[in-house]
Q: What sequence folds into this?
């Protein structure tokens, strides 16, 4: 029987374990924090639960427009302890669900910290395990090892988090109350999501963005649309501003920018990216190649350069999403256990930024098209003309579609809208299944619906014979 040892129990690790158990392997997952990993316990799941509370507050905005009288947003109060309690409860419950699922599938789940042992020059790898809460280190033999150790918030040496005023995104749920004035350092996806959620909850937010717009890696039209919404709702956004240092003051924090300006607030959230958890695993000693930044180098079936040692998820830096981590983990096990497997394809991975409004993307990007790397026709359709959007008083979103110039094959799209995460699916299906704009356009959608704008955009891209 194949013996699989998986280091790390996040989406990469636990989804891999489920596949390997299904294929009758003897599977052990060693996890330092808890089933579900950082994704479930401190990153993705908690942040989305927190955002869910912020959306409840948003529901009280602009009720007059709908003919509903209320005391307005000012009368809404957010009980931070209750919100944080819910965040932690849901995370632990999700972790327990995953733990139960693994155990039910026959996986041995070990609470501990693991690393590779000495290279034994054979077909068996040795994984050394230090149990959580003490106990002797012991070793497990494995025919296949999967490194799925995730990543950790990057720290700036001049802005060291103290868990009270200077925070990582993992520490915000321990605050006894909401910040009065939160300075978010870093306007990537993480910074933008938290800035959006705190703003919705009535917190004064300043976003320190090192680039000329927020979310520099996202579609420019979408990022700028969201930046406009942020500003209109009162967020202060400092573009082209790098934080050099963050310091505690008597009653808060001050953030020193590289141009010498100093911004004062009550709290600072440092969201300047992550670093892979690959130190201390014995990888280099074992001959596993690491790329720049300490990421484990893998191919599209999750192999490292060392036979029998695979890696998946954020520790590989391929595309730090839970969905991708999970697929990399499954692919590793299918490959290791001799199943037919399709190498990882990033082209059809949909991603969503959970700001208000949300920003979902799939397929080719505007930058690739603009740079001439991918020939494409495109259309951008504002939601303001959509009947359902008018009813819901949605003015800010849009749908963008990209297709191949001659065939009309759909190759990408962007949606900015509430619940864009749900609306992107038809475009993802079209990209995945090589559908054309004609096929999308001929699909009958619900009337009135926001998804009607997707087929409407497709109709605008249909080529007419006279053109
Ligand atoms: C704030 C935030 C929000 C996010 N939101 C989303 C989202 O909405 N959607 C989405 O798709 N992605 C989201 N992501 C990204 C997503 O969380 C990651 O891509 C995902 O967690 C990666 O999974 P993983 O299995 O690689 O690692 P992780 O989830 O990080 O799990 C790795 C686990 O390995 C453990 N570990 C590390 N070293 C060892 C060791 N030596 N021994 C034993 N255990 C070890 C760690 O303790 C950790 O629990 C978000 C990320 C952040 C930071
Ligand atoms: N909804 C989701 O799916 C979701 C949510 C959060 C994160 N993620 C994943 O995590 C990845 C990483 O996102 P992230 O936002 O954590 O990191 P990131 O690296 O994408 O963004 C960090 C930003 O901070 C900026 N920065 C760095 N140093 C700075 C300084 N001193 N002052 C001001 N700005 C500074 C960087 O220029 C960068 O724009 C995303 O690409 C995504 O794949 C996904």
A:
């Amino acid at each position: 029987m194949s013996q699989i040892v998986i280091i790390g129990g996040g989406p990469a690790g636990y989804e891999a374990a489920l596949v390997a158990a299904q294929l009758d392997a003897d599977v052990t997952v060693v996890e330092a924090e808890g089933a579900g990993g950082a994704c479930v316990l401190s990153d993705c799941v908690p942040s989305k639960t927190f955002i869910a509370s912020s959306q409840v507050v948003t529901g009280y905005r602009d009720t007059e427009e709908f003919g509903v009288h209320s005391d307005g947003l000012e009368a809404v109060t957010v009980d931070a302890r209750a919100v944080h309690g819910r965040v932690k409860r849901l995370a632990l419950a999700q972790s327990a669900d995953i733990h139960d699922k693994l155990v039910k599938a026959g996986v041995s789940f070990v609470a501990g910290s693991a690393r590779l042992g000495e290279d034994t020059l054979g077909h068996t790898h040795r994984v050394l395990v230090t149990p959580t809460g003490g106990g002797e280190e012991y070793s497990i033999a494995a025919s296949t090892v999967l490194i799925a150790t995730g990543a950790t918030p990057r720290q700036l040496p001049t802005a060291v988090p103290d868990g009270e005023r200077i925070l990582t995104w993992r520490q915000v749920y321990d605050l006894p109350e909401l910040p009065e004035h939160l300075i978010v350092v870093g306007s990537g996806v993480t910074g933008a999501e938290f800035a959006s959620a705190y703003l919705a909850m009535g917190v004064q937010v300043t976003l320190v963005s090192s680039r000329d717009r927020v979310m520099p890696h996202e579609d420019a039209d979408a990022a700028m649309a969201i930046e406009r919404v942020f500003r209109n709702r009162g967020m202060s956004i400092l573009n082209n501003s790098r934080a050099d240092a963050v310091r505690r003051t008597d009653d808060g924090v001050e953030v020193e920018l590289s141009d010498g300006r100093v911004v004062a607030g009550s709290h600072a959230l440092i969201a300047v990216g992550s670093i892979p958890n690959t130190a201390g695993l014995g990888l280099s000693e074992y001959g596993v190649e690491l790329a720049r930044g300490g990421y484990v180098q893998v191919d599209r079936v999750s192999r490292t350069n060392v036979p029998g040692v695979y890696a998946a998820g954020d520790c590989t830096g391929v595309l730090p999403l839970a969905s991708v981590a999970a697929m990399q983990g499954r692919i590793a096990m299918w490959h290791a256990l001799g199943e037919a497997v399709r190498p990882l394809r990033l082209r059809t991975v949909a991603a969503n930024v959970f700001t208000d409004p949300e920003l979902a993307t799939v397929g080719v990007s505007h930058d690739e098209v603009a740079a001439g790397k991918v020939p494409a026709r495109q259309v951008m359709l504002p939601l303001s003309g959509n009947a359902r959007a008018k009813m819901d008083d949605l003015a800010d979103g849009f749908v963008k579609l990209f297709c191949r110039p001659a065939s009309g094959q759909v190759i990408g799209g962007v949606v900015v809208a509430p619940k864009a995460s749900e609306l992107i699916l038809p475009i993802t299906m079209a990209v995945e299944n090589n559908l054309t704009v004609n096929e999308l356009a001929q699909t009958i959608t619900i009337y009135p619906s926001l998804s009607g704008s997707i087929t409407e955009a497709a109709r605008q891209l249909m080529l007419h014979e006279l053109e």
